[in-house]
Sequence to fold (279 residues):
Amino acid sequence: MRVRARRHRVLAHARSSRADRRRAPQRPPLARHHAADDAVDAGMDLRLRLGSRWEMGTRLTVAHDQDRRRRVDDALIRGHRLAVEALRSGPGSAPVGLTLSMSDYQALAGGEARADRLRHQSEDVYLQATGGDDFVGVQTYTRIRVGPDGMLGPEPGVPVTQMGYELWPEAVEATVRRAAAATGLPVLVTETGVGTADDRDRIAYFSRALRGVRRCLDDGIDVGGFVAWSLLDNFEWTLGYQPTFGLVTVDRRTFERRPKPSARWLGELARRRSADIPD
Fold:
């Protein structure tokens, strides 16, 4: 069963790559499945900020070909449907679903149409493909503010994380509500957290995020789980070990692992199995 599911996932990747290359006479640009193309359209660099200094600026090369984009999306969705079929063929009867990276898109005056388009391209096409699944997973970290000319940077006065985006745990509640409304499925929060050197910010982040989950539960939304990112300080893509998301710090020379106060705070909350979130 696992082999078949992995095979379908690999096939989906291969088919999306072929779809991306078929129309390009030379090495194709990277086809993105989210809102990066709108940032480039607006002439924006996507930058990752560490502390108070710009440490890295990245410009994404994006395929401005909507037909290619649709073909890539179709291949990924077909891969998901094939994997669901393989997993449900047995043995066992584990629940099956997909998990989707989502953001809390917030439109400023004049940015409503653009926000809707960004949201549709990066999220709706996949939420609409969950028919017949047992759950939908939500991965979320922040909000995205959208004006009439495209995505905006952090709002003045709102703290930013080591990744450069806003510290905005309310995105968890917003995306859980949206995923539930769009699919009618139970929701799992499969990934959320904050890159920060101050563990007090991490506790505050999870406290605010979990209060949002509690409000969802109070409103009758079926939220089946919450996964904190991450257990250990991890290797974070192009930024390496500089951002620290972990509940446990790791000495990269000795590999000693030391739980942070946030690990004890979250562990105690889990042991109490209480819906009351402490400060």
